[in-house]
């Protein structure tokens, strides 16, 4: 018997084990299955026509996320393309920059900043390529990069405030933690396992290319349905004890489960909720103390008109001026409904401040931002309120943690307790794809421990999804000299010009 | 009924409440009372004569720690002065600097470094003075200083590698966290509430002036003895629930305690071990995820000879060359025993590495460092192994935490749950003094909630201990221009000299 706990990852593990005939029970702390996915269904026919289902948690899938694409196929769920035909906006200090590609181009307002941003992105990708996907702590410069916050790196790398502020926004939106909170090594690793800066930060061809028709939580609901009574809700685990011949798990209502193996499919910090017997090794205990969950308030509003498209905009906005509350806006496009959705992400100090208000106060506060437009429906989710999740999207690593404590990330606790959760994935950690990868790998660890499969069948690569091909980058996206080199070339050309003038 | 949990702080709270006739129970997770104090008693007469009692946890007391000095007096415990008559050593990159005062003087090897270090210390103290003792998040520059690691500050402030490396050592020894792990704001606050850089880092007149005859744990043992059966061991709390008319507390063995109030006298991160009903407010949940315990291995060895004194040394060593394992050594002086003790603190990446070895491997590793001298007795304590403590000395704050989440540090959870633990103290947090201050304050919060005392009697200042007077600083310790200004003066003098030469 194996007992995985909460949701997307645990259900993936349970499904695989169940198919292999292993006797299992899934203990879910919450009163629903889905983990960090949650789809609000319309309660009336009118609502269905107006705005349909709403994803309040993980929502997007994209190319190279082969695990989740395969699961969609298996469970008969369709994906659809998000829209990406118009312009994006980057706000900063009261100014706005309108652009079409992934990166704002400040060419007309500040050509130095445009050059600076492009070369910083290329520099970041060069560093990203030096970080091993599965064990970032083994990067040649792991210790050096882990002693630095991403902010510190930006201060050294960027010449212009525009470039720096956009990359700050990228960090805060990507990691739901401020650039001064995360280590440079973690930032690079997160981008690395998200398949590079040009894929993790992109709609078409990137991490936000697609959504699942009907919402993402249905993947969990369908897996749970197949498992039937083997999934038990409202069973927070508070104790995991090793016995001579197995494992004992206790839930807060006093129920005791005895089994042979356990998969802990929860974020690292949620392991702190469990009293371990014997206590955890000190490296593992150090890790779970040091990897908090990111903080984001997700807020979705539906409007009668698609006013942004009327202005030729995608609805995608990044905002880093420290005045507006919203850090990131994206379009919540859904075919077949009469209203038009925008998703707002509120991050950083604004999220800390707003999380202390009541839901009504928060709503009033955010409504001010969109005063000009009538909202026909509204949903909000603050994952930081969830005791057994702690935040969203995923764990972040402050400086000095990943290089030192990283090796304890996936290391099993003895021979019977295996660690899963999207945070332990080798690819797309923090995403649904990582949750499935980690869950299935942990399930195969159990099968291996049971002697059912050899060790080389535990860590498997997922076959590529043929229908969603990966992105190809153009030459210009990967090549550009630094601003320093550009200036040197300009100075050289001017010198040559003057020299030529002297000659003739 | 009130139920405080683990040790020094909990016992202080319980003692005060018990004296006021409140019906209490103390639930201690471990099988001993003392929290982060632990005194090994000699098991034979021979051991008593040879090395006596050994403090493996908190040990030192000093002037301005008026709470613990008063408690010593109340419980009939004497303090004695640690020795501070000889020279200290600072090792760095294979070189050693011998010095007498609190700060290494590199005057002969590198006068610039000497000047640089002195002016950095004065600069730090100026900044420390701007941080409010009880609410560092209200400092005028709180947000700016919290976006920076202490390492980043040192890189900006210090001109010389010698000065920088010594201050790195100071940080790692003071906070049991690397200079790149802690925010500048936290570093400054910790020094502030430790009554300034010239007191927290000092033997005579400072935090390490005295020890308690017989060891520090006896304070807890004596308090527990007075409380008798009201202290229950091996009762880890895993659930705290609010009911209509009180509080329900459950321990891992299934026992249920019902009461009117609870004091949680545990480090912030240990709150993660508790399942709260209702769940914590998100600011509090964010805080306890983001404040890990420091990491240190404390290692005490006794030698036949006081070989360091023969060389005119105090036994106090700081080491920052990245090669030697030990970060800090101090003398474990005790009158009336025949052997001579040294306490070694192993911090940072060395501690991470060594914590993964077995006790024997670790011992062999450390023995190499002191190969020349015969060890007659040896004790070791790795607090990171303790599930309900998680590390030592205390919590640290990575960048971006104290300014944002700090306000949740001592804020009661509703009207019945009060927060204590040395981490919530206003003075000497992380020390025994802070534990007592916080415990007694939380007890008075309960008394106030019961209507027994008015609100202005909750937060009380402790009367000064007359027998242990505070330190007076000399003028030179607080005044010195920066290296930049020194250089400017030198350039000015040389210019004047040349000008005068031209004149005559």
TrEMBL record, chains A, B:
<dbReference type="InterPro" id="IPR036188">
    <property type="entry name" value="FAD/NAD-bd_sf"/>
</dbReference>
<dbReference type="Pfam" id="PF01593">
    <property type="entry name" value="Amino_oxidase"/>
</dbReference>
<dbReference type="InterPro" id="IPR050703">
    <property type="entry name" value="Flavin_MAO"/>
</dbReference>
<keyword id="KW-0812">Transmembrane</keyword>
<keyword id="KW-0472">Membrane</keyword>
<keyword id="KW-0285">Flavoprotein</keyword>
<keyword id="KW-1133">Transmembrane helix</keyword>
<feature type="binding site">
    <location>
        <position position="345"/>
    </location>
    <ligand>
        <name>substrate</name>
    </ligand>
</feature>
<keyword id="KW-0274">FAD</keyword>
<dbReference type="GO" id="GO:0097621">
    <property type="term" value="F:monoamine oxidase activity"/>
</dbReference>
<feature type="binding site">
    <location>
        <begin position="28"/>
        <end position="29"/>
    </location>
    <ligand>
        <name>FAD</name>
    </ligand>
</feature>
<comment type="similarity">
    <text>Belongs to the flavin monoamine oxidase family.</text>
</comment>
<feature type="domain" description="Amine oxidase">
    <location>
        <begin position="8"/>
        <end position="447"/>
    </location>
</feature>
<keyword id="KW-0560">Oxidoreductase</keyword>
<dbReference type="GO" id="GO:0005741">
    <property type="term" value="C:mitochondrial outer membrane"/>
</dbReference>
<comment type="function">
    <text>Catalyzes the oxidative deamination of primary and some secondary amines such as neurotransmitters, and exogenous amines including the tertiary amine, neurotoxin 1-methyl-4-phenyl-1,2,3,6-tetrahydropyridine (MPTP), with concomitant reduction of oxygen to hydrogen peroxide and participates in the metabolism of neuroactive and vasoactive amines in the central nervous system and peripheral tissues. Preferentially degrades benzylamine and phenylethylamine.</text>
</comment>
<feature type="transmembrane region" description="Helical">
    <location>
        <begin position="483"/>
        <end position="503"/>
    </location>
</feature>
<feature type="binding site">
    <location>
        <position position="423"/>
    </location>
    <ligand>
        <name>FAD</name>
    </ligand>
</feature>
<dbReference type="InterPro" id="IPR002937">
    <property type="entry name" value="Amino_oxidase"/>
</dbReference>
<protein>
    <recommendedName>
        <fullName>Amine oxidase</fullName>
        <ecNumber>1.4.3.-</ecNumber>
    </recommendedName>
</protein>
<feature type="binding site">
    <location>
        <position position="237"/>
    </location>
    <ligand>
        <name>FAD</name>
    </ligand>
</feature>
<dbReference type="GO" id="GO:0008131">
    <property type="term" value="F:primary methylamine oxidase activity"/>
</dbReference>
<dbReference type="InterPro" id="IPR001613">
    <property type="entry name" value="Flavin_amine_oxidase"/>
</dbReference>
């Amino acid at each position: 018997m194996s007992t995985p706990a909460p949701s997307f990852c645990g259900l993936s593990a349970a499904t695989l084990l169940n198919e292999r005939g292993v006797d299992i029970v899934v203990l879910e702390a919450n009163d629903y299955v889905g983990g960090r996915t949650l789809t609000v269904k319309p309660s009336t026919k009118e609502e269905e026509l107006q705005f349909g289902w709403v994803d309040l948690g993980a929502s997007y899938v994209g190319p190279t996320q082969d695990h989740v694409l395969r699961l969609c196929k298996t469970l008969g769920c369709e994906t659809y393309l998000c829209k990406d035909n118009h312009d994006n906006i980057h706000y900063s200090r009261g100014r706005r920059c309108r652009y079409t590609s992934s990166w704002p181009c400040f060419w007309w307002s500040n050509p130095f900043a445009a050059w600076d941003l492009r070369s910083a992105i290329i520099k970041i990708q060069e560093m990203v390529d030096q970080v091993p996907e599965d064990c970032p702590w083994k990067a040649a410069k792991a210790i050096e990069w882990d002693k630095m916050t991403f902010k510190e790196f930006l201060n050294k790398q960027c010449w212009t405030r525009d470039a720096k502020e956009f990359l700050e926004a990228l960090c805060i939106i990507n990691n739901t933690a401020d650039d001064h909170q995360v280590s440079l090594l973690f930032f690079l690793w997160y981008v690395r396992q998200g398949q590079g800066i040009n894929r993790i930060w992109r709609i078409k061809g990137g991490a936000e290319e697609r959504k699942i028709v009907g919402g993402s939580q249905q993947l969990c609901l369908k897996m749970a349905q197949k498992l039937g009574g083997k999934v038990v809700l409202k069973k927070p685990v508070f104790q995991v004890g090793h016995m001579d011949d197995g494992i004992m798990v206790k839930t807060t209502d006093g129920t005791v489960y005895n089994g042979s193996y356990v998969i802990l499919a929860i974020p690292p910090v949620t392991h702190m909720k469990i009293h371990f017997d014997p206590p955890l090794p000190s490296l593992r205990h150090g890790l779970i103390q040091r990897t908090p969950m990111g903080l984001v308030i997700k807020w979705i509003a539906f409007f009668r008109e698609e006013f942004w498209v009327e202005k030729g905009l995608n609805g995608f906005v990044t905002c880093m001026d420290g005045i507006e509350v919203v850090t990131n806006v994206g379009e919540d496009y859904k075919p077949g409904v009469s209203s038009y959705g925008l998703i707002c992400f509120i991050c950083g100090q604004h999220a800390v401040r707003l999380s202390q208000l009541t839901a009504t106060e928060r709503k009033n506060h955010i409504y001010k931002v969109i005063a000009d437009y009538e909202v026909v429906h509204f949903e909000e989710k603050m994952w930081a309120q969830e005791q057994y999740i702690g935040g969203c999207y995923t764990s972040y690593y402050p400086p000095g943690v990943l290089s030192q404590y990283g090796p304890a990330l996936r290391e099993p606790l003895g021979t019977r307790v295996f660690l899963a959760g999207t945070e332990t994935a080798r690819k797309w950690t923090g995403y649904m794809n990582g949750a499935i990868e980690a869950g299935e790998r942990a399930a195969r660890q159990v099968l291996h421990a049971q002697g059912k499969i050899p060790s080389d069948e535990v860590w498997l690569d997922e076959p590529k999804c043929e229908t969603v091909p990966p992105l190809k980058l153009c030459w210009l996206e990967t090549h550009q000299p630094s601003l320093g080199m550009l200036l040197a070339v300009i100075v050289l050309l001017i010198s040559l010009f003057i020299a030529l003038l002297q000659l003739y």
